[in-house]
Amino acid sequence: MADDLELRFERTVQSESRIEPRDWMPDGYRKTLIRQIAQHAHSEIIGMQPEGNWISRAPSLRRKAILLAKVQDEAGHGLYLYSATETLGADREDLTTKLIEGRQKYSSIFNYPTLTFADVGVIGWLVDGAAICNQVPLCRTSYGPYARAMIRICKEESFHQRQGYELLMTMMRGTQQQRDMVQDSVNRWWWPALMMFGPPDAESTNTEQSMAWRIKRDTNDELRQKFVNMSMPQAEALGVTFPDPELEWNADRGEYDFGQPDWDEFWQVVKGGGVCNEQRIAHRRKAHEDGAWVREAAAAHAAKHARKEGAA
Amino acid sequence: MSTSWPLWEVFVRGKRGLNHVHVGSLHAPDAEMALRNARDVYTRRNEGVSIWVVPATEITASSPDEKDPFFAPAGDKVYRHPTFYAIPEDVPHL
Questions:
Q1: Strands B20-27 and A255-257
Q2: CATH number at residue B34
Q3: What is the residue range of B52's domain?
């Protein structure tokens, strides 16, 4: 019987059909998905902080409204994804606890600080651009609720990337000081953006099984290459350079050659040693604890009205 | 006191003339808040003209384990499909 179920699961995955919440699935598949989707959800929620940092100081009402909408989208993306983990039997409170206790991770990119307003533009262009590269293939991931959440997210990410690029174009048409600010920001974010695709394939422990289960559709290195290819013409149009002396068009391959990020730095940030790791988690913990009375009051209000209706 | 809000399933009618379609779930203390949260989470870009929220515990679903037997009654009734009937090609409007 177990073999039967496993065979049906394998066949569903191989035939590009989707696994749905109440289907039988191997324990490892369920665990891998919960880990990956929760990490993704946490990234969206923590990702509100670096840009939220600039909402009160946005240079115009237009930029402020855009930034608010974008940060609100990140919250929404986190909720779509938490909702997907719950279809796998995960508990929302448990996931939040694991995040604020540091037992589950989020993307290391959010442990870098946003020093200038140009960072808002560069995050939209490069960080959300890298996220789109990662996420578009996930629209075809084998688990139905995850794939559907990703379709929704990808549609909204397009706004994020375009607003960022437009912001940078505006700054590049400004003063020399503004252009320098954009280039400085690009210099700081380029390598962390390349790290967003994860360690090189040779060191990526989860890739092989995840590809077999069709959770993951492309390897880290394939996606990184794709991102570099896409970003180069955009940088040229903008008038900025990337801080990589090895970055060069390779006519034989029909792709750009590029250097490797500092993987020691990557692992250091993953392990908690980034500039903002502590600040991000402390902020999330405070928001959760400060919101406790609201959750309790709303629950008490609902309980009171349920009793009234029951009595009526 | 447990502060964990119940789970609600959310269904959105994209536009007039279409069915409500399941879009996901959320936590909320009561139905009214579930509706408001659903508006903010699932319809930030005019994705809907109407929302239903249903307590997740109130949904009864067929089990995928019994998929074959459960849907078997429809499996052998090919005569329910119009293609089951052979009609000469020169008979119009049929």
A1: unpaired
A2: 3.10.20.520
A3: 2-61
Summarize pLDDT for A143-170 with one digit per residue, the tens: 999 999 999 999 999 999 999 999 999 9
Question: Cβ B24–A83 below 8 Å, yes or no?
Answer: yes
pTM: 0.93
Residues 6+ apart with CB under 8 A from B76: none
ipTM of the complex: 0.89
Q: Looking at chain A, which residue has its C-alpha nearest residue B25?
A: A83
In a domain, B50, yes or no: yes
User: Has residue B17 been placed in a domain?
Assistant: yes
Cα(A154)–Cα(A131) distance, integer angstroms: 9
Residue B84 Cα, gap to closest chain A Cα (Å): 27
CB contact under 8 A, B3 and A295: yes
Looking at the partner chain, which of B3, B30, B44 has a beta carbon nearest the beta carbon of A296?
B3
Tokens 């919250």 label which residue?
A75
In a domain, B31, yes or no: yes
User: How confident is the model over B52-85, as pLDDT tens digits?
Assistant: 999 999 999 887 766 677 888 887 899 999 999 9
Number of domains chain B is built from: 1
Domain-embedded: residue B92: no
